[in-house]
Specification:
CATH class of the largest domain: Mainly Alpha
Number of strands: 8
Bound molecules: zinc ion
Strand order of the largest sheet: 1-2-3-5-4
Radius of gyration: 20 Å
Number of domains: 2
CATH topology of the largest domain: de novo design (two linked rop proteins)
CATH architecture of the largest domain: Up-down Bundle
Order of helices and strands: EEEEEHHHEEEHHH
Helix content: 25-40%
Structural class: alpha+beta
Strand content: 15-25%
């Protein structure tokens, strides 16, 4: 079998047997793949710290005809985010990103926009130390790239323009004005709507470098509701992630 070479982002890795690791990664060329890194748990493994979550790596792997898992032969770190995971909340933030990517990306379908989103968000957390803004940005763009983001400009029932007045939303993705809101809908402030529009226009690097904007927690919670709706299960990391500014 020919060896493949690709840039990749490590999503998760698990202990496998005595000495190996089972690794889920996003190959830039081939999409989400699972493979085995033989000997990765041995003390002097050639993989070193390259298999840590969200590591940006160059990876060499090959497929085995009769097996669903690829064999990872070599992995070199291009950029590590181990040091960025210095707080409990940063660990939760990286864990949330990998959990979402693992659940929303189909296997073997390249997704360069999600690849670049994961990398840009990891870098923003690493360089700014901010959590709420990069995670708000990541969840917004995950929903947008998945095609599940409803229009935030107008009431979905009567069509009223929502700019400057806030909206009401439900977990099914509905967006409503005050008059049309159904029972149980939750408020999204005018600030939350304005921030969402800004995050759709500007890069996370630029926003994080300037230290803002504040991402109201109700916005990220709404976006995580939409992601969970699509995944058809709850995000396990969500309850421990702190989104307050
Ligand atoms: Zn309305």
């Amino acid at each position: 079998m020919p060896v493949r070479e690709s840039e990749a982002i490590i999503l998760r890795s698990y202990a496998l047997g005595e000495a190996d690791r089972l690794v889920s990664f996003l190959s830039r060329n081939e999409g989400r793949i699972r493979g085995v890194a033989a000997g990765a748990r041995k003390p002097k493994s050639r993989f070193g710290a390259s298999l840590e979550p969200l590591s940006y790596v160059r990876m060499w792997y090959y497929e085995r005809e009769t097996r669903p898992l690829v064999r990872i032969s070599q992995c070199e770190i291009l950029e590590s985010f181990v040091i960025a995971q210095r707080s409990y909340n940063a660990i939760a933030a990286f864990g949330l990103m990998s959990e979402i990517a693992e659940n929303v990306l189909p296997e073997h379908e390249p997704s360069d926009p999600v690849f670049r989103l994961l990398l840009a968000t990891s870098r923003a957390i690493s360089t700014s130390g901010l959590i709420a803004l990069p995670i708000g940005y990541f969840t917004l763009w995950t929903v947008r790239l998945g095609g599940w983001l409803p229009s935030l400009d107008r009431c979905g029932t009567c069509g009223r323009d929502l700019a400057g007045q806030g909206a009401w939303v439900n977990a099914e993705g509905g967006v409503f004005c005050r008059d049309c809101r159904p029972g149980g809908a939750r408020a999204l402030s005018a600030e939350a709507l304005a921030t969402a529009h800004r995050m759709l226009r500007e890069s996370v690097e630029k926003l994080a470098a300037a230290g803002g904007p504040r991402v109201p927690p109700e916005l990220t919670n709404y976006l995580m509701d939409l992601i969970e709706q699509h995944m058809e299960k709850k995000l396990s990391v969500r309850p421990i992630l702190e989104l307050a500014p």
